[in-house]
Amino acid sequence: MNKPTVILQYEGNGIHHGPLRITAQTGQIVQIWGASGSGKSTLLSRIWGSRSLGTAHLCIRTHDQQFTPSTMTPAHFAFLRSRLMSYVGQHPTVLPREKLVDWFALVPTKTVLDGLRLLDLSPSLLSRYACDVSGGELQRFMLLHAYFSSPPILLLDEPCTGLDPERSHQVSTLLLQAKAAQKLVIYTSHTSASWVDQSISLDG
Predict the structure, then answer these.
(1) Domain named ABC transporter: which ranges (predicted)?
(2) Quick one: pLDDT band at residue 194, thresholds 50, 70, 90?
(3) Cβ-based neighbours of 175, under 8 Å, separated by 6 or more
């Protein structure tokens, strides 16, 4: 599936902003930013499918197909979602006895090590269980796992929250690498950025 386009049309439905239209495609970074309570996470979870779209409309196009959740069964959309999208929330949940090394079983070792180096993560952490690393380390491991996964669309809810400026810059570099790898990155933040392709404010 090449260059899927995500289209979201959102019209109110309880969030504090008016009609909103997002059109984006692979090879782009879209930032959705605003203050706490502005609806960033809600919007992202509607794209992901964990929350009802309400009156919003979502369409995902690939080079040869078009998908709209409103015309699909929940099971069909869940299958589609697993093929096209990866999602990393603010509070990731993991299996308690799942080792981090297992997340990267299909990724070449050098590629994994390069990713760990970029995000300032020690390779020794790979032998630990996911529940035995710090919250910040787990957050960065989740981002790296999403980056290496096959779905072309990455949905990231405040990926830099709680990170210092240096590590925030490392995450930004990873997002730019995802863009160069022809992934579509849609992420939320409290502040705007100048290096993204689209910056959408929900602050009014």
Answers:
(1) 1-200
(2) very high
(3) 29, 156, 159, 185, 187
